[in-house]
Amino acid sequence: MEKEIIALEEEFKQDSHSAITQQDLEALRIKYLGRKSALASLFTRLPTLSKEEKITFGRRLNVLKNQITAALEEKTKGARGSEAPVDLTFPSSDIQRGSLHVLTQVSLELCTIFEKLGFCVTEGTEIEDEWHNFTALNIPLEHPSRDAFDTFYLDIPEGSENCGKFLLRSHTSPSQIRIMHDSKPPLAVISPGRVYRPDQVDASHSFMFHQIEGFAVDTGITFAHLKGVLLHFAREFFSSDVNLRFRPHFFPFTEPSAEVDISCFACSGKRPQTTDQRPKQESQKCSVCKGKGWLEILGCGMIHPNVLTACGISAKKYKGFAFGMGVERPAMLKYGINDIRLFFENDIRFLEQF
Ligand code: PHE
Q: Which residues contact 151 (CB under 8 A, 6 or more apart)?
């Protein structure tokens, strides 16, 4: 029996050397400590031995069993340590980070430019009433923009007295009214947000888009302040060498009013020098301004005295300027996006480029 015990010890030493994984160790445990193991069969032979041999080999076998058990336990601990513990909170290596929507980024960028000039940012409400969206803005009852073809009216009971029907605001200008009504000049405010118009959707129209309203009210505000603020904005946002062109226009809520163009930042409004007098092929024209040299970006003017009065501000004492611009158009111009629908389709391949 002594020889068999020594052989078993040797065999276990060798086997345990090459056992690494938990599975290997479990196989070893079955082989050496299981009910059908060589060790178990040596134990079953003990009763057939003499009294002294029983004591000697009984002790030898128990020592061997304890050694094997201890060795296996030791190895099992090591195996657990080497197989990296699973940490369910550990971030995966191919994790995809989300980012702000390109329109949110552009909106924030636009607001920041004005904030640095001292404007503060206040949001209006998307559901408005006729008084804030039209009447207080000096838009007469018969004005076509009040038509249901140009404004989404809500099918809910009228609001407070004299405020008319509820609607989805068709521009951010009602923010001017809310702010001027609630606070006293001096004011310099930027108000970004969504606006809604029942337009047919195509590459340049959407029934919902974003605008940024800006205005300032104080004593002694002039059109020169408006020009200075807008020129600074255009040079910060587009390019430091763009120029502005103010074209006379009409808005009921500003007088005088203008539409503002920036000189094309892609071709600087320059036409290629050539002696060829034949009309240019479409493909030869600047792809950004289509050869016009100017890009329309916003509407503006001096706040109409009727608007100040409607908000309880003395039109004799105070003057103000206001402007309103879309967010999609500057974003499209800046990033060369040619279809407004791309902003709202949520195609990840488009969104992740910004
Ligand atoms: N509300 C006008 C529009 O949506 C823009 C504008 C704002 C014009 C403020 C003048 C002053 O077209």
A: 133, 145, 167, 168, 170, 197, 198
Q: How far apart are CA 36 and CA 352, in angstroms?
A: 63
Quick: pLDDT tens for 54-97.
899 889 899 999 999 998 888 887 776 666 678 888 877 777 78
**Which residues form the pocket of ligand 1, taking CB atoms under 6 Å from any ligand atom?**
171, 173, 251, 254, 299-301, 322-324
Give the span between the Cα atoms of 59 and 65, in whole angstroms: 10
Mutate to test the pocket of ligand 1, among 217, 251, 323 (most ligand atoms within 8 A of CB): 251
Q: What is the pLDDT of residue 274?
A: 52
Ligand 1 centroid distance, CA of 182 (Å)? 21
Q: 102-273+281-351 in CATH: which number?
A: 3.30.930.10
Q: Between the CA atoms of 224, 228, 231 and 233, what dihedral angle is there, to the nearest 10 degrees? A: -130
Q: 207: which 2 tokens?
A: 């029934």
Q: Which helix (H) or strand (E) holds 41?
A: helix 38-45
Range(s) within the chain of domains with CATH label 3.30.930.10: 102-273+281-351
Q: What is the pTM of this model?
A: 0.73
Q: Distances in Å between the alpha carbon of 300 and those of 41, 145, 322?
A: 101, 17, 6
Q: What is the DSSP letter of 304?
A: P
Given a cut of 70, whether residue 313 has pLDDT beyond it is yes
Expressed in angstroms and rounded, the spacing between residue 38 Cα and the centre of ligand 1 is 95
Contact 189, 195 (CB under 8 A): no
